[in-house]
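pinning this so it doesn't scroll away 📌
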Amino acid sequence: MPDHLYTYLLYLIYGMVFFAMGVAITSRDTRTSNLSVARWLWLFGLFAYVHAFNEWFELFLIFHEHSFPAGIPPLAEFTKLALLFSSFGFLLLFGMKVFCVIFPGKYHQLCLIPLFFVSIWLLSMIVTQSEWTPSFFRAIDFRIRNFMGFPAALISGLGFIIYSGTIRHISDKGSRNFSGAGFFLVGYGVLTGLVPSGTILPLLDIPVELARGVFAFAVLHFIMNALNIFDVERNLLIEERLHRFAKSEKLHSLGKLAFGIAHEINNPLTNVSLNVELLKKDLVNSNNPAFPAKRFDAIERNLDRATKIARELLSFASQNESNFQATDINDVIAGTMDLLGARRNAYRITRNLNEVPSISAIPWKLEEVFLNVIINAMDAMPEGGALTITTKRKGDKVVAEITDTGHGISPNHLDKVLDPFFTTKEVGKGTGLGLSICFAIMESHGGKIELDSHVDKGTTVSLIFPIGVQNNE
C-alpha cells in the first residue's frame, strides 16, 4: 500500500506541476508585449498541458493494468505514446521558434531541426519489431524520449538561456529566471530523454521519476517568476506614456500661453522700434543730448523686459534637469506672472507675498506647478474673477496659497483631482494630467498639495514646502 500511495502521489503531483506551468503561461496576457518570445509561449504552454495529461494517463494505466484481462490494450498504449510524442513535439517547435527569434537570419536552416529529429525517430521505428508486445511499446516510448524529448528540452533550455541575455536591460531578475528555467529544462531533458523510466539513480538512490519531478518543479518556479517580466515591461510602457502625456500637458500649457507671451514681447519690441526711429530723428534734428539719452533708456528698458519674458519662457519649456538650489518662492511666483503675460489682465490678481525663508528646489519645476494651478484657477473663472496669491511661513514650512472665486470643485471630485487623466473639462480642453504632475513635482521636493473647495464659492490650493531640505532626483 505505501508503494501504491507513493506512486500515486508522485505521478499526480508530477502532472500537476506541468499543468500549473501551462496555466501560468496561458493565463498571462502577452498580446500587448513587445518581447519577441511572447508570441510563441503558447507552444510551451501546450507542451506543459499535454505532458501533464500524459503523466496522469500513465498513472491511470499503472493502477488499472490488472483490470485488463490480457494486459494493457494497444489503443491505450498508443494513446499514451501519442500524448508523449505530441508534448515533446510542441516543446521542440517552441525551442525552434526561440532560436528563430534569437537568430532571425537562420529561419530556414532552423526549420530543418524538427524534421531531422522526426526523421531519426521514424528510421528507428522501422528497425523496431512490429509485434504489439509490452517490450515493443517500451522501445517506442524510449525512442520518443531519446529522439524527441531530449533534443526538444535541450534546444528549448538553451533558447531560454541565450534569450535571457537579450532582456537584461528590461529586468535583470527576469533575465536570471529565464536562464534558471533553461538550465533546469536541460536537466529535465537529460533525465527524461536519456535515462530510462524505472531507473534508480546511483548515489542518490532515488527513482528517476522523482528526480524528473524535482527538475520539473524547478522549471515551474523559474518560469512563474520569469513571466513577471511582462508586468515590468507593462509598467515601463505606462511610465513612458505618462512621460509622453506629461510633455503633451506642458505643450498644452505653452500653447495657451503663446498668444499672451507673443503680445507681451511684441509690446516692448514695438516700443524699441519706435524709439529707434525717433532716435534717428533726434540725432538729425536736435542738438540737445538729453533727447537721445532718454531714447536709449527707453530702448534698454524695453529690451530688458522682452529678454526677461523670453528667458522665463525658455526656462519653463526646457526639459533639462537641474540641481536643487536655494530658491525664493516669491521669485518663482514673479516669474510665473511674467509667463502668464496679457492673460492675467482679465483677472483681479492680488499678491500678498510675505518675506519667507528660501527652500531647496528646482525653480523651473516649481514654475510649472504654479502655472498649472493658476491656469486651473483662471479656467474656473471663465468670466473673470479675483485671484489671490499668498505666501507665508508656518512653523518649519513655507506655504503658498492660490485662492480663486470660481465655481469650485464638487465633493465627489475632490478626492480624484490629483489622479492621472481625471478631468472635468470638456474633451480637448485638457488631458487631466496637470495636477497629477504638480503632485509628483511637489512630492519630489518633499512638499504636498492641499485643496479646500466649495461649490460656487471658489477653491484654495495650498502648496506646502519644507524649509532647508536638500533633495536629489
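📌 and the second one:
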Amino acid sequence: MSDFMFDESRCRNIVVDIRYVLWVIDKYGEAGHLIEEMNIIR
C-alpha cells in the first residue's frame, strides 16, 4: 500500500523476520501448539 498511495499520517510498516515471530510465539507466548499445527517448510 505504501508504494501505491503513501500517506505519512496513516502508513506504518513493521518489518520482522518470521523466524523471530515463530520463536516469540513458542517461547514467550507459550503457544508451541500453534507452531505444531502449522505446515512449516524448511
